[in-house]
Design goal:
homodimer; 401 residues; Alkaline Phosphatase, subunit A; Alpha-Beta Plaits; 2 domains; five-stranded antiparallel β-sheet; 13 strands
């Protein structure tokens, strides 16, 4: 649905909306079991809420596409993640809390292995350990090229972040990653004439990196891709009329919140402390995004039982959230992270919306299968949530007369 | 959802996908009855599979539009049949297995009746019988015009196929069928300057046809429409990374498979023999499309009981299909063909997808009403099936990070 219409219709109101994101909430049954993590968890508070809410399962991108954390969250914030495409470089910078500035060009780097002829023999340098990556990044940090400043930061294993800071930099540069072994790293080509200067700087950086990494084993070269700049998007205030706050402790989520114009609040990282923060700042904002990370980590670690137990912990803190009496409360995840897959997945995500005038459906508990029968449908676009919250918060005018 | 994104995200994997199309699968209850053909059929294997699958009902085109066989199949193959529009002439050529070549222009012809002034008095010449059509086609085959080769082939009743073969032919020609009686057949006009030569050739053909058919009763003239050329589309290998094979015996289905880049395999026409063929070529392809025709024919004949019995036969062969152990199995139809309508219809089509990581829903048997509660939803776009199969087959990367 077009945001244009919502932008035309939103109106002020003295109402509060809370979006609680339980990261990686959706799951799958394990082994012989028949219930997912959420269905296995004892969640009396969530179930009671589901009974008095409208429920369903949302798709962050589409039925088949597994979202990264960036796209998953953008969809929840009402921004279609295909239209609002964040480059890999920028996402990497957000993920480690790098202070990316307007005009910077960020790229995702791989340490790789090349043979004597310079051909890529391993695109991931044997998945080197993070401490080795740190050492190599320190080597690259010493590269000095006139007219630009380079930042080189460790991400994880073979992955690093490269940021160029200077004037007139452009991100339209072809990936140097040949995406296959046995090929030479492609030279960084400018995709538009304006990007020639930047491409030239990157080429010089790669040449210097080749010299400095020569003889290293196994990581003796770098590949770069996902050149991107901080996008300049309309914020949630413009699109939805919401003064929005993010209560999230991990850099990625703080970063994505900032991208859509949220004020990022300082808070302890546990849910009770996050809710305290929201309470303290209750009068300053219309919209609070509260992010719970550990459920996703448990899923990525393949730890079914821990994910179950973490969901139960969130359930235990719900009364504290309900005490705030938000006019609209959304509880969902940004994507599924089934522990049997040890990874994000494409499966739709359970969601509930609680408000005075949500029409009741027949859902009696909060779980993947139960939500199939909900009023929001078994696979609705995640981007519908914020507009529907606005409606329930009395923040949307009638269309036409 | 855009295929652009899927094309960006697909990755290789050593997995197999099977799409079993039971043509015209969806149905309606008859007379006093309360169950459709599929609901009436005893299908223990399909029901057992449905219990362990994700189910739903798909729309090939939209909730209201009845698809022909071409559009119905294109949707199942992941190609939006509105964007990927095949002309009537090409579909007619595919339907009879005519060896249409790149550059040929194909058109759908009607034998019609015109009065002494040349005005159309019956657009279908009293629906002449197919043998009469053959005789008339033999007459038209003798038309010889310099610089082009004409092929005239019987389709059915009053319908025939006209193909022009030569250099520089274009399909942008206005229909000569006035779509009403009492009007003169329109002269074939070029819709773009480049098509003038072709329009002129068609005009000469029509003039010759008028002379040769003069005095015939009731078919004394022809009408032509649906001028089209073989489309040049990206194949399933390009869009989805799939080496695809078609195991179908009817020309139309072989033709539509070839349009999307499938290798069309030779096989017996019964399902067990088709599954044998798939087994023999198992290592050569990632994707197998297996087509079962008789269910649709029974529906078109209005034979409810025969359709029931044919569905039961397919059910009986399922164990042979499951022995192949595809990583992803889709079972559905290309459209509904309710026997009470004797025709294709607009009704959504039951579908199931079976794979290790399909999230279970609450569907306990394979039927129109049961599938309404499925995780795929009661009316999902048929074009979602291939992308979802790719996800389940480990063939799609994460979007964003």
């Amino acid at each position: 649905m077009g945001l244009d219409l919502i932008q035309r219709l939103h109106q002020p109101a003295d109402t509060k909306i809370v979006l609680l994101v339980i990261d990686g909430l959706g799951g799958l049954p394990r082994g012989q079991g028949n219930t997912t993590e959420l269905e296995t968890a004892r969640t009396p508070n969530l179930d009671d809420l589901a009974k008095h809410s409208i429920c369903g399962l949302h798709q962050p991108v589409s039925l088949s596409v597994t979202p990264g954390s960036g796209p998953g969250h953008l969809a929840l914030f009402g921004y279609d993640p295909i239209d609002y495409d964040v480059g890999r470089g920028v996402l990497a910078a957000l993920g480690i809390g790098f202070d990316l500035q307007a005009g910077d060009v960020a790229a995702r780097g791989n340490f790789c292995t090349v043979d004597d002829e310079g051909r890529v023999s391993d695109r991931r340098a044997g998945r080197i350990a993070t401490p080795v990556n740190r050492k190599l990044c320190n080597t690259l940090k010493r590269i000095d090229i006139e007219g630009v400043r380079f930042f080189v930061e460790t991400l994880k294993e073979y992955r690093f972040l490269l940021v160029l800071r200077g004037s007139g930099l452009r991100p339209e540069i072809a990936n140097s990653d040949p995406q296959a072994t046995g090929a030479l790293p492609s030279s960084p080509q400018a995709l538009v004439p304006k990007a020639k200067k930047t491409a030239n700087l990157v080429r010089r950086f790669m040449d210097a990196a080749r010299k400095r990494l020569k003889g290293q084993d196994p990581a003796n070269m770098i590949l770069l891709r996902g050149y991107s700049q901080l996008p300049q998007w309309p914020g949630m205030k413009t699109l939805f009329g919401l003064r929005a706050a993010a209560v999230a402790s991990y850099p990625m989520y703080r970063g994505v919140g900032a991208l859509v114009g949220m004020e990022v609040l300082e808070s302890g990282s546990a849910l009770p402390s996050q809710l305290q923060t929201a309470k303290k700042r209750w009068n300053d904002f219309d919209f609070f995004y509260v992010h719970v990370k550990p459920t996703d980590s448990a899923g990525e670690d393949g730890n079914f039982d821990r994910k179950v137990s973490l969901i139960e912990q969130v359930d235990g803190h719900l009364p504290q959230l309900l005490e705030l009496q938000p006019d609209v409360l959304i509880i969902t995840g940004d994507h599924s992270t089934p522990s049997v897959l040890n990874a994000h997945s494409w499966h739709p995500v359970p969601a509930l919306m609680h408000a005075a005038h949500c029409r009741p459906d027949t859902v009696e508990r909060f779980g993947e299968r139960a939500c199939l029968a909900g009023g929001l449908g078994p696979r609705f676009p995640a981007t519908d949530l914020i507009p529907l919250a606005l409606a329930n918060a009395g923040r949307l005018m009638t269309y036409g007369a």
